[in-house]
Amino acid sequence: MRRPRQPLFLARASYRRRRLRDAARLLPVVGVFLLMLPLLWPQGGAGSAVIFVFVVWALLIGFAAVLAHGLDQPETPSAAGDD
Amino acid sequence: MAGQVLLIEDEANIAEAIRFLLTRDGCQVEVIGDGLTALQRLRGDLPDLVILDLMLPGASGLDILASLRADPRGQGLPVLMLTAKGQERDRDAAERAGVSAFMAKPFANADMRAKVRQLMGQG
Amino acid sequence: MPFDILVLSCFVYVIFLFAIAFFGERRAQLGGMGFLRSPTVYTLSLSIYCTAWTFYGAVGYGARSGIEFMTIYLGPTLVFVGWWWILRKLVRIGRQQRVTSIADLISSRYGKSNGLGVLVTLIAVVAATPYIALQLQSVTLSFAVFSSDQPEGWATPIRASTALWVAGGLAVFTILFGTRRLDAKEQHHGIVIAIAVEAVVKLVALVAVGSFVVWGLAGGPGAVIDRIEAVNLQGWQLQPGRWVGLIALSAAAVICLPRMFQVLVVENVDERHLARASWAFPLYLFAMCLFILPIAMVGLEQMPADTNPDMMVLTLPLAHGQGALAMLAFLGGFSSATSMVIVETVALATMLSNHVIMPLWLHLRPEATRSADLRGGILLARRLSIIGVLGLGLAYYRLSGGSAALAAMGLIAFAGMAQVLPALLGGIFWRGASRVGAILGLLTGFATWGWTLFLPSFGQDAVIPAQVFALGPFGLSWLRPEALFGTAAMDPLIHSIFWSLALNTAAFFAGSILSFPDPVERIQGAAFVNAFDAEAQGGRLGWTHGQAEPEALLNLAQRILGEEALTFFETEARAQGKEGYLPDMTPAFLTELERRLAGSLGAATAHAMISQLFGRATVTVEDLMAVASEAAQIAEYSARLESNQTELTRTARQLREVNEKLTQLSVQKDAFLSQISHELRTPMTSIRAFSEILTEGDLPAPQVADYGRIIHEEAKRLTRLLDDLLDLSVLENGAVQLNLGLAHLGELLDRAAAVASQTRPDRAFRIERDVTTEEIYLRTDADRLVQVFINLISNARKYCEANPGVLRIAIRHRAGRVTVDFIDNGRGIPKEKQALIFEKFARLTDQTKAGGAGLGLAICREIMANLGGTVAYLPGQRGAAFRVTLPLRLERSAA
């Protein structure tokens, strides 16, 4: 089933939106990466690991909030579609 | 004037008026108020004259007329058709079905009596 | 803190929750959803992820294994932060397909297979029962902490009865607000708002206790961090396997747990709320976790060595004489437990009734589709399921004796539900996923989980003999429950998660690749995987050649959806350009109808029901191919052409209807003249004949009186006819003078019923009314409205053939409009006549001489138009039914 051809290049606003979605997809991957880091540290006191995890956590929440704000806007018809 | 008249009319007041007029003239009048009962009644002894309203519950006047004319005994029976609509189309249909005479409501009493007398005389 | 005060405040709190839930339902019903629909409430309702296991257990977990407790909250954080991947699609599919539970989603995706629904339901019930028991235990324990001098009093006499009381109360609450009505979409606004409030309570409670501990006992955040750094307890080392495994497990759980699916997908009212929840829910978890380790640290330091760390949230404040704080903590724990149980019960009850009880019932009594009262049946099934689920939880709690083993139950339940994950993710991302694969995967995973984790959790020799643990069943050492294929070096929990999910996924893929899906599966697969692609959602797929009578369908729909069915049919009919309540049976309409029914019954049952009405099997491969090539052809045209096409079809349909109506009208115009002539001549005939007779003047007196009376009667009839004609022409020209004022609907109906009772007074006839609904004050022209009511009631008295005749008057008030339905128990009006009855002289049977001239309904229609409302025939009610709709307050300008 062929869809109507979509333009090859997008206007600035649509372009921004697409990259925002890419960032939203990337965020959990970054999260996983960062949360695995403490496993590679030498075992010792737990304090720094706790602080590190909480900081990563807070950063994830912060970025998610920024991205959610951008992605929450209603889609323009031309930007519809999943890619 | 003596004879048996079968009056098929669903409006009770109109039936009463006709019954009164014809009884006074010496006829025996039998009143039936709906089409289905009338069809059944006509399978029995036939009267000397049938007065038939066009619009009836159960079966219409035209239906009754048609079934009467289909019966060999009833082919010559005089039938007077009454209608309150008074439209040409109804009159045509009734004549095609073999009505003997036709009378529009409202009627003058004298006309009704005259018409009945005339039809009974034929019979 | 006196125990009585605790019980009392607990009681007050429960009443408060009931009030909140009731208020929420009330608001939702009146349509004023406002804040109920806010993303904040949605986010807060997600917090049922944090059960009593979090509230009490996390501190215990933190005390035993340090930082590892955070994995349970990091997994969900990653899933929510990555909402663009999975959650967004799940919520979209959930709304498109009107999914009622996770079992329904799986069953719907894999060809509306009820077998799969049953399987997922079974897994969910097995995994959730101990978890519910755990919640009951936590409430009981927290009561015990207060009631006994020994804070850790495990064995208190009241313990057994506490669990029973709590379970009973929860059953009442859940039945009251979980099965209040049957929605097209399975949403419970009362429950959602109540658990949102509970979410706030538990967060506030935990933060309060945490602040007290950090600043009151430990001497500030810095001191706490130093202590954590210095600690070197057994078990606090980070274990890579468990760290990764538990994060993955909790990530899976937050998607698959029935209660999470319920609030995340089913109760979602707006997809955009997910954007807010994507960061706000992780923030909530963050706040919940912040103080866990400090409380655990300080608790370990200050409390006696034999203190149960699971109860430190309560015992720490109590030990320092902070009764009020402990009280707050208690309410927080109570909230955590109750909100989890309520939602879990609702979710499980929906699954049980939709996938087990209803299909069984319909199987045993196939004729129920056509006859019985389905709504009542479904609601009863729900209620029984709720009692059943809570009963199971309670029984499990009693039988297991509230053992400490329950504490591990949270993770075991997680691992059990996670078995649904491969089928779920495969279903929404991979069109090749098939039913056979899903069934194989689920069975394999469930069996592995049972063998390696669930059964061993009861302890050695409890279910599985110790010998089998050591040597394997029948001496097959590679099947040892905690060392499959010789992997004895793994942590038992991780071992089970690893093997169950690995084998599950392998079976799922193998089954999918080797089997061939049936057509419905392929349609559903395409619709799920391409959820964001509008074309795949087209109603063209599915019911290609419908044969069902629209009225039969409306009947069925009404018995499931109630009032909403009529609205839906009317809207669909209007969208097709038709008037009335019966749209054409287009495939698009049928697909949408099936989805609506699925919202109440689950996809499999709804599909089966419509199939039963259609009396044919579902789609064939040939249909599917035809649909596919048709879809491909349509895609060739531009979107504009397509929309033109629909516009044209609609216009054509409208034209056809107008044309039909015009033809009928011209026939009627003739009929009108001839009718009016007939109606005038008939009374005239009697008057003329009798007046002539009386003029002749030789009659006895009683007969004169008789005939005089007849003339009088007929003259009155003539006058009435002329009045009606005049009335009608005034109304039609809109020249009528309205007499607006406030009127009580009940009184208007009283008046109308009294007048109408003079029509065929000898008749056995009963009017059923619900006076409570009649407490409405209308601003309208009371006399005119009464005229309409009289007409409708008299008509029922005249024409309803049932003996005794029963007329039901039902009133509904919504959004400023009032509808009054008059439904009798007769045979109703045949479909082809329904459009005509409001025309002048359209008395249906000329045979029935009922006095009127056939102007009554025509006048009613004109009156209602003048009153800013309508009167219409309501099909699909078995008897004849008329619906009067009018504005609550008629403004003068409308007149």
Give the SSE map.
The complex is a heterotrimer of chains A (83), B (123) and C (895).
Chain A: H1 12-36, H2 47-71
Helix pairs in contact in A: 1-2
Chain B: E1 3-8, H1 12-24, E2 27-32, H2 35-41, E3 49-53, H3 61-70, E4 79-83, H4 88-96, E5 101-104, H5 109-122
Chain C: H1 3-29, H2 39-46, H3 52-55, H4 57-65, H5 71-81, H6 87-96, H7 102-109, H8 114-147, H9 159-178, H10 189-218, H11 221-230, H12 240-256, H13 258-266, H14 273-290, H15 292-302, H16 312-319, H17 323-364, H18 374-400, H19 409-417, H20 421-429, H21 435-454, H22 466-471, E1 479-480, E2 483-484, H23 492-514, H24 519-529, H25 550-561, H26 563-575, H27 587-601, H28 603-614, H29 621-636, H30 639-696, H31 701-732, E3 740-744, H32 745-756, E4 765-769, E5 777-781, H33 782-799, E6 805-814, E7 817-824, H34 831-834, H35 856-866, E8 870-873, E9 881-887
Q: What are the key terms here?
A:
heterotrimer, B: 123 residues, alpha/beta, Rossmann fold, 5-stranded parallel sheet, globular, C: 895 residues, mainly alpha, Sodium/glucose cotransporter, 5 domains, 5-stranded mixed sheet, 5% strand, elongated
General description of the model:
The complex is a heterotrimer of chains A (83), B (123) and C (895). With 83 residues, chain A is an all-alpha fold. Chain A has a domain at 47-72. Helices cover 60% and strands 0% of the residues of chain A. Chain A has two helices and no strands. Chain A has helices at 12-36, 47-71. Chain B has a single domain (3-122), classed as Rossmann fold (3-Layer(aba) Sandwich). Chain B has helices at residues 12-24, 35-41, 61-70, 88-96, 109-122; strands at 3-8, 27-32, 49-53, 79-83, 101-104. In chain B, strands 2-1-3-4-5 form a five-stranded parallel sheet, sandwiched between helices. Chain B is globular, with a radius of gyration of 13 Å. Chain C folds into five domains: 3-402, Up-down Bundle (Sodium/glucose cotransporter), CATH 1.20.1730.10; 422-533, no CATH class; 538-619, no CATH class; 641-732, Helix Hairpins (Orthogonal Bundle); 740-894, Heat Shock Protein 90, CATH 3.30.565.10. Chain C contains 35 helices and nine strands. In chain C, the strands form three sheets. A five-stranded mixed sheet of chain C has the order 4-6-7-9-8, with helices on one face. A two-stranded antiparallel sheet of chain C has the order 1-2. In chain C, strand 6 and strand 7 (817-824) form a beta hairpin. Chains in contact: A-C, B-C. Chain C: It is found in: Membrane.
